[in-house]
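User: Show me an example of a complex going from sequences to structure tokens.

Assistant: Sure. Here are the input components:
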Amino acid sequence: MAKGDPGASTRGRRAAPRSRKAVTGDPELVQLLTPAGERIDSVTGPDGTEYRVDFTDEEYRGLYRDLVIVRKLDAEATALQRQGELGLWASLLGQEAAQVGSGRALRAQDMAFPTYREHGVLYCRGIDPIMPLGLFRGVDQGGWDPNEFKFNMYTIVIGAQTLHATGYAMGVTMDGRTGGENGEAVIAYFGDGATSQGDVNESFVWASVFNAPLVFFCQNNQYAISEPLERQTRVPLYRRAAGFGFPGIRVDGNDVLATYAVTRHALDNARNGQGPTLIEAYTYRMGAHTTSDDPTRYRIASEVEAWQAKDPIARMKAFLERAKIADEGFFADVDEQARREAIDLRERVLAMPDPKPVTMFDHVYPNGSPLLDEQRAQFNKYFDSFEGSAH
Amino acid sequence: MATETLTLGKALNIGLRRALENDPKVVIMGEDVGKLGGVFRITDGLQKDFGEQRVIDTPLAESGIIGTAVGLAIRGYRPVCEIQFDGFVYPAYDQIVSQVAKMHYRSRGKLNIPMVIRIPFGGGIGAVEHHSESPEAYFAHTAGLKVVSCASPQDAYVMIQQAIASDDPIVFLEPKRRYWEKGQVDLDAPLAEAYPLQAARVARPGTDATLLAYGPMVRTCLDAATAAAEDGRDLEVIDLRTLSPLDLGAVYESVRRTGRAVVVHEAPSNVGLGAEIAARITEECFYSLESPVLRVTGFDTPYPAARVEEEYLPDLDRVLDAVDRTFGW
């Protein structure tokens, strides 16, 4: 497939049965930046909402900077896994725009509930990218306070966090914190595979009947490990929302501008008491599910190449160049900053100490447990019986 | 001391009311807990007095109840979730085991999930399938959860308030067939001075053998002890109250005196609480034992049809039969 064929869909390139067309065909989607980097001034959504962005040049450059750094840090983490420094890594490659666009759309007071792949959202929240790496290195299982960072811990059970987000959003309403610019909104991240989970569907029910100030942000990256979207759904995912009684909209998830516009609008609706929205960010997982996965077993190279032509960073760069918002000096500067942040991340990962074994007994209960006290004491005694042991 | 005669169900109701009064962050949520007051009326009148935001009728989905309660807890609330019947907790099992139990640990102690999950449990009410189960071992086996069960109106009133005030996530098992049994309840005693939540208690002192029970089987064991006394056997009955972690200090002390122990629960025997208790007694009291620790339990069948549940459930005669066997060893 030619790379200069960006607008093309994947339809017809695979020996797909007819029933697949409904979900893999040209998506009806909100787009403000074409794969070639052409700006579309505004798009009117199905409900008449006009989506547009009004960024300064500095803000455009800032989004580009985010995209590049997020990708670079992700690549660094993948390399760290390959070198045995991380046990696992779930790469976001290809989904940078979906994460930066939605992450930057959040206001400071908003709360995010990620899966385990939202490294880009985390970065846009201003959080040190080292924070989730303990989990992937195997030295902790998260270990941060969700309320301190307005960013819940990574959730590995697929879809479970959508219910947490819904309950949290109910709490926002109960606290009387909706309404106006300072109102709070909540965003729940999940993927196309998660839409089959009961918890996600239950969260749709709850959010709807309690009118929760919540945005369901589904990154449809086309695969749940090896299973393509057709194994999860016969209808475009955004249309599911209608059956639950709230709006659903599909946005080009590789378009950081459209993703920002759509997410900001949905968040502001939520914070103003207008209830939930389902956003389907149509994107593609360019890499493996995780570093343990081998995508060559279940998808063909031409499909990946077709999505390569829709790359979220290339199109933003093309736009910045075309609009003369940025020059070569800027791009070189961003690359250099990304390189430095990656090196810094690497050095700090390598310096992460292993926890002392006895710490496994800590923090099982806020009020402790006599059973654990006993087991900890027994463990210490046993451990101390070995010469040169230290804990 | 202002004591009142109350049913166990009413004692829970008043305990929940006190918890709602004492802390504005306490919310009750579940199926039919609002206008109806719950199918057992344990939340009767609470929505009327505290409003729909404090006593929330939820959609009919148990995982949703627990999952949204996790979110409310992250937000700073103290959710008290009602699961309508024991057999309906399983759709919520993932949220309870993978999220409620692990959030504090996952966060290295930075986040608490102060949640109470109330479950009417056990049989004896002639119900249809899924309404008579004893799922305590599933939860007691899960690190990060605490599991307690009340057996008397006084304990019901105090323990529900203690559980709600605790920062630990607690599965609170209510002996549904005892909801209507009456007892004296001291409504004015300060909670801070109450008997601790995570502690077993001698319900009846005795010298000849030790009966260990919790929830609905405490009454059964007390009745067995009364009957045994007529035959000249003095049985001690210990109400375990906390199932995870177990509080076995008083149990060891008792078994060292009596030399005989019988664990009684409605749940099936295989890998049940009785197995853990028997193992620990054996480790701690080996030289004091006159007989193996015996178990009187439900059978390892699914909970049977109501017309045969009387034969399935441990009763006075089966308990005394086991006591006899400890003496015949």
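The lines above are the inputs; the final block is the predicted structure for all two components together. Chain B touches chain A through 47 residues (CB under 8 Å).
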